[in-house]
Amino acid sequence: MMDINQIREYLPHRYPFLLVDRVETIDLDAKQIVAYKNVSINEPFFDGHFPQFPIMPGVLIIEAMAQAAGLLGFKMMDVKPGHGVLYLFVGSDKLRFRQPVVPGDKLVLQAAFISSKRGIWKFACKALVEGKEVCSAEIICAERNV
To answer: DSSP code of 99?
Structure first.
């Protein structure tokens, strides 16, 4: 398990763009992670998306999955951004949205390593609410030295 202070050591994102609140499990042997984001009405994006029917923007759900995948990648390599390495979200394949995410939801983020070739990492990702899949995608990240 990782709390928010440990997560901040591995992800360079900060409020309002840090979208992982806690990591429940990381299995480096299976190359999988389970994390979550508590979705609150206090999120700044709800002021405009949509005030009468607040829905978490799909691009932020994708970003949350990418951040969970990035955490897994950092842990697999045993490095942190402070070591001069970043993972940049560069694309997605097989993206699907299945239902809206609304205030009060606990967005569970799952990522599993698929492959890595020449600094391009691919992860199978899912986002779930109450055990129901709300989004899935293969997330592609590029490893960059900075």
So the answer is: S
Per the prediction, the chain carries an average pLDDT of: 96
Amino acid at 30: A
Q: Which of 22, 31, 49, 75 is catalytic?
A: 49
For the beta carbon of residue 118, count every other beta carbon within 10 angstroms.
6
Summarize pLDDT for 106-140 with one digit per residue, the tens: 999 999 999 999 999 999 999 999 999 999 999 99
Angle ∠(135,60,116) on CA atoms, nearest 5: 70
Please name the residues in contact with 45: beta carbons below 8 A apart, sequence gap of 6 or more.
Answer: 16, 56, 57, 60
Catalytic-residue membership of 49: yes
In 3D, which of 11, 94, 89, 47 has the Cα closest to residue 37? 11
**In what order do the strands lie in the sheet containing 22-27?**
22-27, 32-38, 106-117, 120-129, 132-145, 85-97
Beta strands in 39-105 (DSSP E): 85-97
Which of 3.40.50.620, 3.10.129.10, 3.30.565.10, 3.10.180.10 would CATH assign to domain 4-145? 3.10.129.10
Query: What are the boundaries of each domain within the chain?
Result: 4-145
